[in-house]
Amino acid sequence: MVIKETLIMDPIHGFINISEYPIIKELIETKYFQRLRRLSQLGLTSAVYPNATHTRFAHCLGVMHVFLILFDSITRRETNEINEKDKKRMTGAVTTLLHDLGHGPFSHASESILDKNFGNFNHLDMTCDIIQQTEIADILNRYDIKPQLVCDILYHQVEREWILVSQLVSSQLDADRLDYLVRDSYFTGVNYGQIEVQRIANTLQIWHGDSTDPFNDTAIVSTKGVSAIEDYVLGRYLMYRGVYFHKISRCMELLLMNVFKRASELPDTETNLSKVIDINQKTTPELLYKMDDSTCMTLFHEWIKSEDPILQDLSKRVLERGKLPSMQIPRKKYMKLGIRKLSELPSTLDVSSFPKEYYFIEDNVEKSAYDVYTTAELDDGGFSPIEHIMTPDENGQLQEISSQSKVIQTLSDDEVKVVSIFVPKKVLPEVKRIVNS
Predict the structure, then answer these.
(1) 277-309: per-residue pLDDT in tens?
(2) 3-state SS of the chain?
(3) Rounded mean pLDDT of 116-143?
């Protein structure tokens, strides 16, 4: 009997087989997954890198593919029996496929105004609502996968026997990062994130400690694999500096947030915002379904004709790449400015026609959605298989990887230490004068 395969051609991973598990094809065909075709992976980063228009749809397929590479590589070399190995493999593939379902249009920009009257919007919570409250739950149950288990994996709230799956889905060295770093590097055209996924997969192994060891049955990096992780951490660091933290990328995302902010403050009769995002209702899976990048872009085109000059100008800036000029301040210098000078900076706009709550934009990348790898221990004084990358030392004792690599130690300590201030061109000289005086 010939089994018909369905393969999707991907520029990053080659052919991705979506027919290995019938559940995968069914999930992909749901309207909630198809919506991901209409969400850009990098928001307005295309204002800097014109080809960065790839979608969360392609990314999620890639993450599923990478998960299977990691899981197969680790388990193939494992001598101990793995309970329910096939179920864990399929469940992990499903979880990685669905992990981004709950994102709003342009991700964090639109999510900043959702559910303000009900508690802040959380895309992971929304992902789990979609998994548990829609036809996706019916599909999962039909294949004997509990929707709650999928959510528990995403939240890292699993029994020890499932921690390896949860770790490969989301951690400091996971399928998500290993796809988006390579994918974003490819579509932006930079070379920073060209990480060898298979090479990294070949360096991972399961750690066997005693029953009290928090790393027991989790994935660690073999001694010979430290150099591969150095490449990964370096690529990640450079991607964050050159792409995710690029000053124009950040400016456009923050302007976009201010567009949504201004629209949410005006009467709906003037903005028609509720046609896409109804801020007076708590977001449900069905409401989220109609929110995507293209519907928001349609509103922006309407808003450039708005009678409100702020909404009109901000919308035009988003559509026409009307970035604000910026000044970068080393964080140490910024912290030394003192309360008086810091309070003076927004006031530079008081004499202009640009309200400071929309046009004085202070960007501290520590609050960005992206996190550079750091070696800090957790509050309880220990390390975690989710928050840290571990490897054995020369004595076979498990250590956080930076202690075994000067390269990783240097990179993890050298976080992006710059505060950017974006203001209209006419007030930038005054901002510089205050900062440098």
Answers:
(1) 999 999 999 999 999 999 999 999 999 999 999
(2) CCCCCCEEEECCCEEEECCCCHHHHHHHCCHHHHHHHHCECCCCHHHCCCCCCCEHHHHHHHHHHHHHHHHHHHHHCCCCCCCCHHHHHHHHHHHHHHCCCCCCCCCHHHHCCCCCCCCCCCHHHHHHHHHHHCHHHHHHHHCCCCHHHHHHHHHCCCCHHHHHHHHHHCCCCCHHHHHHHHHHHHHHCCCCCCCCHHHHHHHEEECCCCCCCCCCCCEEECHHHHHHHHHHHHHHHHHHHHHHCCHHHHHHHHHHHHHHHHHHHCCHHHHCHHHCCCCCCCCCHHHHHCCCHHHHHHHHHHHCCCCCHHHHHHHHHHHHCCCCCEEEEEHHHHHHCHHHHHHHHHHCCCCCCCCHHHHCEEEEHHHCCCCCCCCCCCCCCCCCCCCCCEEECCCCCEEEHHHHCHHHHHHHHCCCCEEEEECCHHHHHHHHHHHHC
(3) 96
| pTM of model > 0.85 | yes
Distance of CA 56 to the CA centre of its chain: 10
Tokens, residue 318: 């988003």
Asked if residue 170 lies in contact with residue 99, where contact means CB atoms within 8 angstroms, the answer is yes
- Domain 7-243 CATH (choose: 1.10.3210.10, 3.40.50.2300, 1.10.10.10, 2.60.40.10): 1.10.3210.10
pLDDT number for residue 158: 96
- Rounded to whole angstroms, how far apart are CA atoms 311 and 308? 6
Query: Lowest mean pLDDT: which of 267-271, 301-305, 373-377?
Result: 373-377
Are the C-beta atoms of residues 197 and 16 closer than 8 Å to each other? Answer: no
Which CA distances in Å does 17 have to 22, 54, 340, 359, 365? Answer: 11, 20, 60, 47, 37
Residue ranges of domains in the chain = 7-243
One-letter identity of residue 143: Y
